[in-house]
Design brief:
The protein is mainly beta. The protein contains no helices and nine strands. About 0% of the residues lie in helices and about 60% in strands. The chain is globular and about 45 Å long. It starts with 14 loop residues before the first strand and ends with a strand. This is Cupin superfamily protein.
């Protein structure tokens, strides 16, 4: 077993996805996800990318992410807008509800704990 993990998107094929139709607000965003780690205890780590569009988000899990490229806006219901660009990091906690809008195709690396 290897105890170090690198995030090399050329090493695996990405999974394709999109927001659920009932969450879509605008655009036709498409997702690509390179999930490098699925560990016991509900830990996930990888890279996620989305094309422009806007959709509703609701978190049951804890997620830390770091924006690698692109521009997005996350808005918490009843809260402030957070503008995200390359170099920015954020944590979304269980119970977070709001919207995610991709302005320019956005790529992030992430660690999720369910």
């Amino acid at each position: 077993m290897t105890y170090a993990l690198t995030f090399d998107p050329t090493s695996i094929e990405p999974e394709a996805g999109a927001p659920a139709p009932d969450r879509l607000i605008s655009g036709t965003p498409e997702f690509r996800t390179w999930n490098f780690e699925e560990a016991e205890g509900g830990i996930y780590a990888g890279i996620w990318e989305a094309t422009p569009g806007k959709w509703r988000i609701a978190y049951d899990e804890w997620e830390y992410f770091h924006i690698l490229s692109g521009v997005s806006v996350v808005i918490e219901d009843g809260g402030a807008e957070t503008h995200l660009k390359a170099g920015d990091s954020m944590i979304l906690r269980p119970g977070f509800k709001g919207t995610w809008e991709v302005i320019e195709t956005t790529r992030k690396d992430y660690v999720i704990r369910v």
